[in-house]
């Protein structure tokens, strides 16, 4: 268990930097140097996906040893996932979809959540439960920039973090949209760089990501 820090609002998580890195950790020992490399490049909001057996240990290590970082948990698929993430020290959560049970669990735990949506009906469901900062996932596969432009009219009060198929090559196109606050992507933490411990490369990629938000 780690000491809980004051919580954030979901929009604060989204506004901190243009990109939230989507991180897959296979070796818990890599979590701290990886987090430090991202922070050195100006990226503090770190989404560690709950896709590997060591993900919770990685979140706990970052929360404990890298106070400049804000550890978050991605791939929250259940109430149990949300509770485990909070216990590990996560300060925000990201889900690939949305259910009211997950929304309530995160709210009860004081965990800001970016729920995943891919359709108008899912946006309505999340908004009905008070969630208007959302993850658009899988962004490119579900309609990309064109879909977000279409949503801007009926959902003018909803803000998005497109994730899924977003890369350094197309991130600016998403970030230029009025209803996009940030994007999510895995290109900041390439598997080969993490495996090799090439932290300088990850810091460089983080700096380049920060520069995506011109001005």
From TrEMBL:
Per the record's keyword annotation, is Lyase included, yes or no? yes
Q: Which residues form the signal peptide?
A: none
Q: What is the protein name given in its UniProt record?
A: 2-dehydro-3-deoxy-phosphogluconate aldolase
Query: What Gene Ontology molecular-function terms does this entry list?
Result: 2-dehydro-3-deoxy-phosphogluconate aldolase activity
* The protein's assembly and partners: Homotrimer.
Q: Which reaction does it catalyse?
A: 2-dehydro-3-deoxy-6-phospho-D-gluconate = D-glyceraldehyde 3-phosphate + pyruvate
Q: Do you know which PROSITE patterns this protein is assigned to?
A: ALDOLASE_KDPG_KHG_1, ALDOLASE_KDPG_KHG_2
Taxonomic classification? Bacteria, Pseudomonadati, Pseudomonadota, Betaproteobacteria, Burkholderiales
**Name of the top EC class for this enzyme:** lyase
State which pathway it belongs to. Answer: Carbohydrate acid metabolism; 2-dehydro-3-deoxy-D-gluconate degradation; D-glyceraldehyde 3-phosphate and pyruvate from 2-dehydro-3-deoxy-D-gluconate: step 2/2
Q: Which gene encodes it?
A: eda
Q: Which protein family is named in the record?
A: Belongs to the KHG/KDPG aldolase family.
């Amino acid at each position: 268990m780690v000491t809980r820090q004051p919580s954030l609002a979901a929009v604060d998580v989204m506004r901190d930097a243009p990109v939230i890195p989507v991180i897959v950790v296979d070796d818990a020992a890599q979590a701290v140097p990886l987090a430090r490399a991202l922070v050195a490049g100006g990226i503090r909001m770190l989404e560690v996906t709950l896709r590997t057996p060591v993900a919770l240990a990685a979140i706990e290590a970052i929360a404990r040893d890298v106070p400049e970082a804000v550890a978050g948990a991605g791939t929250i698929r259940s109430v149990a996932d949300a509770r485990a993430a909070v216990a590990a020290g996560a300060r925000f959560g990201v889900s690939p979809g949305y259910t009211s049970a997950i929304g309530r669990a995160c709210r009860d735990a004081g965990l800001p959540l970016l729920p995943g949506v891919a359709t108008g009906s899912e946006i309505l469901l999340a908004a009905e439960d008070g969630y208007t900062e959302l993850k658009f996932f899988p962004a490119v596969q579900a309609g990309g920039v064109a879909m977000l432009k279409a949503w801007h009219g009926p959902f003018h009060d909803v803000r998005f973090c497109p994730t899924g198929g977003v890369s350094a090559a197309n991130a600016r196109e998403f970030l230029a949209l009025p209803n996009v606050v940030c994007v999510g992507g895995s290109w900041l933490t390439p598997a080969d760089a993490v495996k090799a411990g090439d932290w300088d490369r990850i810091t460089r990629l983080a700096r380049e990501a920060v520069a995506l938000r011109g001005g």
